[in-house]
Design brief:
Number of helices: 1
CATH topology of the largest domain: Immunoglobulin-like
Strand order of the largest sheet: 1-2-7-6
CATH architecture of the largest domain: Sandwich
CATH class of the largest domain: Mainly Beta
Number of domains: 2
Strand content: 25-35%
Shape: elongated
Oligomer: single chain
């Protein structure tokens, strides 16, 4: 993944530093990401999704279910007023957003989905419901046929 940075004509060394820094961090899997890391587990009674969201607060994350699709999303914008006249060479913490969608299996009880947010981890529990068993129909085939 290549990151797009603003080019700064006045500081050409900054561009080289940004490129080196981004390549180095990406190599270690530590660069900025547009989607959170997610683990999905299944047991007999439910599915559990855990999403790592460090730096997010509970009110900054939305969880929605629509048309059998679970969507985790956030748009986070920091609007800091700088009292000191700071001259930034690079600033990446101004805007963050992500959106992650999951198609739900047929056996999820969408009305009973629960979520909790603690220590930067969002846990969404998707309880399973009993699926209706296919109805078996007996067809009587008789030897009595009308022409």
């Amino acid at each position: 993944m290549k990151y797009i940075m603003n080019s700064n004509q006045n500081y050409p060394m900054v561009n080289d530093f940004e490129s080196l820094f981004n390549d180095m961090m990406t190599g270690f899997g530590l660069g900025p990401s547009s989607v959170p890391a997610v683990d999905i587990q299944e047991n007999d009674k439910d599915y559990v999704i855990e999403a790592e969201l460090p730096g997010y607060k509970e009110n900054e994350v939305e969880v929605n279910v629509e048309k059998h699709v679970l969507r985790l999303s956030s748009v986070k914008q920091s609007q800091k007023e700088e009292k000191d006249a700071k001259k930034y060479l690079m600033r990446e913490r101004c805007y963050q957003s992500f959106s992650r969608s999951f198609s739900l299996p047929e056996d999820v009880d969408e009305s009973a989905i629960e979520g909790k947010f603690a220590n930067g981890v969002l846990t969404v529990t998707l309880p399973k419901k009993e699926l209706a068993q296919p109805k078996r129909i007996t067809i009587k085939i008789g030897s009595d046929q009308n022409n």
